[in-house]
Design brief:
The complex is a heterotrimer of chains A (255), B (295) and C (325).
Chain A: E1 2-13, E2 16-27, E3 31-35, H1 42-49, E4 57-62, E5 65-66, H2 72-78, E6 80-82, H3 95-102, H4 111-116, H5 119-138, H6 154-166, E7 172-176, H7 184-201, E8 204-208, H8 212-218, E9 221-226, E10 229-234, H9 236-241, H10 243-248
Chain B: H1 2-32, H2 39-57, H3 61-84, H4 92-114, E1 119-120, E2 130-133, E3 138-141, H5 142-164, H6 166-176, H7 178-183, H8 188-214, E4 216-217, H9 223-236, H10 241-261, H11 267-281
Antiparallel strand pairs in B: 1-4, 2-3
Helix pairs in contact in B: 1-5, 1-8, 1-9, 1-10, 2-3, 2-4, 2-8, 2-9, 3-8, 5-6, 5-8, 6-8, 9-10, 9-11, 10-11
Chain C: H1 8-30, H2 36-61, H3 69-86, H4 91-113, H5 118-137, H6 157-175, H7 178-188, H8 190-195, H9 200-226, H10 236-249, H11 254-270, H12 275-292, H13 305-313
Helix pairs in contact in C: 2-6, 2-9, 2-10, 2-11, 3-4, 3-5, 3-9, 4-9, 6-9, 7-9, 10-11, 10-12
Classes of the chains: A alpha/beta (255), B mainly alpha (295), C mainly alpha (325).
């Protein structure tokens, strides 16, 4: 069964089509890349899937459930988590508090218990804190738990964002240009990390990336967007040799 | 029937005052995304400058208006430089709180310096004349006429400045995209200063008009017209100049009708009710376009 | 293994400190050792703390700029006063009804207006406050412009003290819980919060409702201390006063709000004969704070036992360093 499928998604802004008739199918456990020139509508697709934008037409089916037009927090609860192209952390909060927010959707105590400080509050907070530390350890951020998110170096901010997304316990993880601004060494580490996460957490992953080396090495299948339309899809090998893709990327290096 | 036309007439002249104030709100918002809360109070300062010009210097209404416009243009520029410019890159909430601070500062500094008492324009400043139509069913005063003519003249002048002068072009460019305008060699600071100067001058003119129209001025006179003009700017779509003019007339007519047919006690509440309804159903105003936040 | 549990030491110290403060003032008031002037300011201080701490939940922690807090206060004040003065209910029922009415108003206003962002929300809440004022002005049953008079003075020191403590404890307990973190995440980055599974609208409405409830409490206490309430008492300027306390103390710092409320209450008592000077000073302080320290004097830091331990233990270290772990 497909983990996620989008059917004929359309979205336009002020008469300008950002995404046009976009259909995609992602199987369980796949690692899919979404590429295309700047302004092709890749991030808009992510925003449609995660509920930030409501599609003009078309539908989005996740785990057999129609999530078209649902609110982002609802979609998150169904098991889709994402990161952002321009990092969006809770900058004024500590690293661990950034993670704790991800557990709020499963908060194990009522507001009243919090106000009255009932035992369930202390149990719940312990549970949240333990889980948060687990995720920080996986992402090698445990020793920074009390630092402000905004004070972390760039690479660690990216990792924190991924940790925060993972902490919502998704079955589909969506990464928007995870390697942006990283040097080749960091990119290689990231590639390994993504692989590790996919296996350890049983994830299906969809990512946008401009770093073709990463995309070609990591992704099992690739969708190519140009001017809001899907112009090709296939294995990295097929995409590398597709004339339409080369044309869309004319002037840009492929592979 | 005549009653209705009479209210419409009152509404239009009141509306032209709101429109002038609304223009300042909309221009400043268009250019630096700030609700200049102090704008109504700049109008009040304008009214006081006009008052003192007439009462002490003994000039006529039109020169008084010019003095008020010049003084407030300067005041607007100074306020921007001292209070708003340091906050240009901070959060919008910080800027808004500052604007509220500036507003209260102007109000209470005026009370402190000039006492809270009401002042009346000297008798004979504007000898009243009434023109009657339709068997005395419809009255048009020369005050209405003066306010309407002066307001429309200033709006035409503003349109000319915005559309056909260098500074107007810079203003439009900065409101589209401040960074791009800067990169194209436009002096953004200067453009913002001009915007404040022009907006404040229009408010000052409105202040003198309010003085002439109601004959009394006081340090807190700017609050309610300021808020209503803000509502007018929102109705027209904040940041859009013709929208502000339209919004001003809509507010004026609405207010005249509410006080004519309903309770004048509720007329201020109606303005806010309209505001909240507009914000809920068409927050970009009648002329505005929807632009979502980029994620 | 992490275990979060109640810190008995801190709880004991807090309880003892509060009990001492309460008893001392109770004794002074009962023996009439502080004159009426100081008593009025003491009560005003308590009411201001309730207002500032509750507005801070909305403005400081959740990041939604509300300029209508006095509107909620007036709903609470009028409801409580009508219950006791006109309908003959007990004070406790009156206060309870005032809180509920204000909270209900917060909920009703909150659900539609909280779709608005930033300055639009600020203006809408300001408009709400003005509408409430004009409506009370036009209701003859509650005295119209001359106000509701003859309200019995039922707000005792015990009532006030308990109300302040309950307000602070409830709001602190919300803020330091998963629900509070959800509110703070809205302030920090609304889009990210929503995408991490936080129903942002729900938490904005929660903050608004709880904040309004305590503003209603403050209103009820106010009405039953000063004998009379008028629509003009709850105008924009009152909202502004509360806002200055929150902004000065630090957006998102409860202790900051308390300190600022205390400081400004004393200051305005001192400047009582010069109201214009007070307002000029307030506005200048506000502008300067925004320019040089827009997060407020304490930012989102709290004064705490930890802070004092730090001062004692590490004289060279920064005084207010980081939130307690």
């Amino acid at each position: 069964m497909a983990r996620l499928s989008t059917v004929n998604l359309c979205k336009s802004f002020g008469g300008l089509s950002a995404v046009l008739d976009f259909s995609m199918e992602i199987g369980d456990g796949e690692l899919i890349g979404l590429i295309g020139p700047n302004g092709a509508g890749k991030t808009t697709v992510f925003n449609l899937i995660t509920g930030v934008y409501r599609p003009d037409s078309g539908s989005i089916i996740f785990n057999g459930q129609n999530i078209t037009g649902k609110k982002p927090y609802y979609i998150c609860k169904q098991g889709i988590a994402r990161t952002f192209q321009n990092i969006r952390l809770f900058n004024g909060l500590s690293v661990i508090d950034n993670l704790k927010i991800s557990f709020h959707k499963d908060v194990p105590y009522q507001l009243v218990s919090a106000i009255l400080r009932l035992p369930s509050f202390y149990r719940g907070e312990s549970w949240i804190e333990e889980r948060a530390i687990q995720y920080l350890e996986i992402m090698n951020l445990a020793d920074k738990r009390e630092e402000l998110a905004s004070s972390l170096p760039y690479g660690e901010q990216r990792r924190l964002e991924i940790a925060r997304a993972l902490a919502t316990n998704p079955s589909l993880l969506i990464l928007d240009e995870p390697a942006a601004g990283m040097n080749p060494l960091e990119t290689q580490e990231l590639t390994n990390l993504i692989r590790k996460l996919k296996d350890n957490f049983n994830l299906t992953i969809l990512l946008i990336e401009h770093d073709m080396a990463l995309v070609m090495e990591l992704c099992e299948r690739i969708y190519v967007l140009d001017y809001g339309r899907a112009i090709a899809q296939g294995t990295p090998e097929e995409i590398r040799n597709n004339p339409r893709v080369i044309e869309a990327y004319l002037g840009e290096e492929v592979g | 029937m005549y009653e209705f036309f009479q209210q419409m007439l009152n509404g239009v002249s009141l509306g032209s005052i709101y429109a002038l104030i609304a223009l300042g709100y909309t221009m400043v918002y268009g250019i630096i995304n700030l609700i200049n809360f102090a704008h109504g109070d700049i109008m009040m300062v304008g009214a006081y400058v006009g008052f003192f010009s007439i009462a002490i210097l003994g000039v006529g209404v039109v020169p008084a208006m010019v003095f008020a416009m010049l003084a407030c243009a300067l005041l607007g520029v100074v306020i921007e430089k001292l209070a708003y410019k340091p906050l240009r890159n901070s959060t919008r909430i910080a800027a808004l709180i500052t604007a509220i601070g500036v507003s209260l500062f102007l109000e209470y500094a005026t009370i402190w310096l000039l006492t809270p008492q009401q002042r009346s324009f000297p008798i004979g400043t504007f000898p009243e004349k009434n023109y009657y139509f339709f068997d005395q069913q419809l009255v048009l005063t020369n005050k209405d006429l003066f306010v309407l003519v002066a307001a429309v003249a200033l709006m035409v002048l503003l349109q000319y400045i915005v559309k056909h002068t260098r500074i107007g072009k810079s203003m439009r460019a900065v409101s589209q995209d401040m960074e791009a305008a800067m990169l194209m060699g436009i002096n953004v600071d200067k453009t913002i200063s001009y915007t404040f100067a022009i907006g404040s001058a229009l408010a000052a003119a409105a202040g003198v008009m309010v003085g002439v129209y109601y004959n009394t001025i006081d340090p807190l006179m700017g609050i309610i017209p300021g808020l209503k003009a803000f509502v007018a700017a929102v109705i027209g779509g904040i940041g859009i100049i013709p929208g502000a003019m339209m919004g001003g007339f809509v507010m004026g007519i609405l207010e005249a009708l509410v006080s004519g047919y309903g309770s004048s006690l509720y007329r201020d509440a109606v303005a806010f009710a309209v505001l909240i309804l507009i914000l809920l159903f068409k927050p970009t105003g009648i002329f505005g376009k929807d632009t979502g936040e980029k994620v | 293994m992490v275990t979060k549990k109640l810190n008995w030491t801190h709880l004991t110290i807090s309880t003892v400190t509060l009990a001492v403060i309460f008893t001392v003032f109770q004794y002074l008031i009962a023996r009439q050792l502080i004159d009426v002037y100081y008593q009025i300011n003491l009560f005003m201080l308590g009411i201001n703390i309730i207002l500032a701490v509750s507005l801070n939940l909305i403005n400081g922690f959740t990041g939604q700029l509300s300029l209508g807090h006095a509107g909620f206060m007036s709903v609470g004040a009028y409801t409580a006063a009508v219950m006791t003065t006109k309908l003959g209910y007990s004070f406790a029922i009156g206060i309870g009804a005032g809180c509920l009415a204000a909270a209900l108003m917060g909920l009703l206003i909150g659900i539609p207006t909280l779709r608005l962002k930033g300055d639009y929300l600020a203006i809408a809440t300001l408009g709400f406050g003005e509408i409430v004022r004009v409506v009370f002005l036009n209701i003859e049953y509650v005295g119209g412009a001359s106000g509701l008079i003859g309200i019995p003075q039922l707000t005792t020191w015990t009532w006030l003290f308990v109300s302040v403590v309950v307000t602070v404890v409830v709001i602190q307990n919300i803020v330091n819980s998963s629900y509070g973190r959800a509110c703070i995440s809205v302030r920090e980055n609304e889009v990210a919060a929503e995408l991490m599974g936080v129903n942002t609208t729900k938490y904005k409405v929660l903050a608004f409702t709880v904040g309004a409830l305590f503003a209603g409490l403050a209103g009820g206490l106010y009405a039953h201390y000063f004998f009379i309430i008028q629509p003009g008492t709850f105008g924009f300027f009152r909202s502004f006063d509360i806002l200055v306390m929150v902004v000065l103390g630090g957006l998102g710092s409860t202790t900051g709000a308390i300190v600022a409320a205390a400081f400004l209450t004393v200051l305005s008592a001192g400047l009582q004969s010069f109201p214009e000077v007070r307002m000029v000073l307030y506005s200048v302080v506000l502008i300067i704070t925004m320019i040089y320290r827009p997060q407020g004097l304490m930012g989102n830091k709290e004064l705490s036992f930890r802070t004092f331990q730090r001062i004692r233990g590490d004289k060279n270290g920064p005084v207010v360093n980081r939130e307690p772990v």
